[in-house]
Design brief:
about 25 residues; 2 helices; about 90% helix; mainly alpha
Amino acid sequence: MDSRAGLGSQQKKLDPTLEVQADNS
């Protein structure tokens, strides 16, 4: 969980669109 949260935060900064798509999936 912690690892995912950290990754999501970093990915969001790098590619917010990608994060949104992954969340939607």
